[in-house]
Amino acid sequence: MSTPQETQEPRERTMIYILVGGIVLALMVLGLFLFSSASETKEAEAKAGQYIAALGKVGVPAPPKDEVVRVLGSDGGATCDDPNNALKRAILYSQLSNGAAGPGMRPVVFDKTMFAGQLLILKIYCPDELPSMQKYLDKLKSADVAH
Where are the domains of the chain? Predict the structure, then answer.
C-alpha cells in the first residue's frame, strides 16, 4: 500500500486549524454564558437559610451556606429529582445492609434519625415529594439504635 502524495500547502492546514480552533473557542464562550446552573439566587439563598436553621433545630451541624446553595440550588438538586424511584430505592437498600456481599448480605435495623436531613431537604425544597417518601420510610424497620 502506498501513501498518497501530500498536495495541500502548510498554509492551508494552518488556516483550517485556526478556523476550527476559533469555532471551538467561540462555542466554549457561548456555552459559559448560556449554561444554566444552580445560580446563587435570592430564592436559593433563602431556602439554604431555612435548611441550615432546620438542621440546627434537629441538632445536626450544618454545612456552610454557600455549599448548600451550590449543591441544592433553588430546586433541591438531585435530592428532589424523583427521590422515590426504583433505582434510588435499590441503592438505599444496599446501604441499609450489614456490608457483606453475596449470600451473607442482610438488612439491618437503622436509626430513626438517619433520614432527618433528607426529609428536611424534601420538606423545604420539594414538599410535594415528602408524603410519598415519608410513607416509604415508615414501612422500613427502624428503631432508636444510635443513642
Answer: 42-143
> Residue 30: in which H helix or E strand, if any?
helix 10-34
Is residue 123 within 8 A of residue 130, CB to CB? The reply is yes
Q: Cell triple for residue 86?
A: 426504583
Sign of CA dihedral 98, 81, 136, 130: positive
On the 0-12 / 13-18 / 19+ scale of CB atoms within 10 A, 15 is exposed
Phi, psi of 97 (to 5 degrees): -130, 175
Q: Band of the pLDDT at 38, cuts 50, 70, 90?
A: very low
pLDDT above 90: residue 24 = yes
Q: Could you identify the residue written with the cell 420539594?
A: 126
Contact 118, 79 (CB under 8 A): yes
Q: What is the dihedral of CA 62, 67, 68, 73, to 10 degrees?
A: 180
Give dist(CA 50, CA 64) in Å, integer: 13
